[in-house]
Automatic annotation (TrEMBL):
Name the record gives this protein: Ribosomal RNA small subunit methyltransferase J
Native source organism of the sequence: Rheinheimera nanhaiensis E407-8
Cellular component GO terms, alphabetical: cytoplasm
Keyword Cytoplasm: yes
Binding site for S-adenosyl-L-methionine: 101-102, 117-118, 169
Pfam families (alphabetical): SAM_MT
Amino acid sequence: MTFSLVNHGAAQAYVVALCQQFGLTLTERASGWHLTFADDALVLRHSDLPKQGDILVDFASGAASYRRLHGGGKNEAIAKACGLNKKRDLSVLDVTAGLGRDAFVLASLGAKVTLVERNPVVAALLHDGLRRALQHKELNWLNERMQLCYASATDALGAQAPVDVVYLDPMFPPRDKTALVKKEMRAFHDVVGSDTDADALLAPALQLAQKRVVVKRPGYADFLAQQAPTLSVTGKNNRFDVYVIAAI
């Protein structure tokens, strides 16, 4: 399945390169979900849902910047789960990168993170978010600590060199199906779909990781692949199931 990109103001060479890299179709006008540019940023937009709002990757401002500057740092649940409260320079393979928010937190704490994303739309958004982030001096470390890999999680787990930590955050259905799903989750479910193969990722993740595998889950969710972890670290809205392989 191909997705449309409408160019409004971006350099044509860059747009063509995006289409070639991620298999997008360049059009003058698109309906439904499509990619376009707004204020030099690649955004995901729905032509018939003006109240939906644009979705983009922004590491330099907004929630990502606030969390980097004022979050819990090494005391965050995700940092403890991945072992970054004990050691900075860990290599992390985030095989379900999404919009890269967790990967950015891990990288800001010193980890070297490879972001794996298989959906072309989300991968393109990540690519553009990394491009824009590098224009900010305070994020000059980002190019060394965050690398994008456009591939399926299964392929990445089979091809990557061993890493300290494999991080999994598969999409999970909302608990209350009658409640309105957040706008961003609505877009993800429409464009990306569900991670129906998530259980199958645990075994290869355990083979690849040298130190631990960390699985992010809603507090009410079952263990991935029905396999109990070594321990769980509870966050504000989620828990992190940790499968310890070796000490950090």
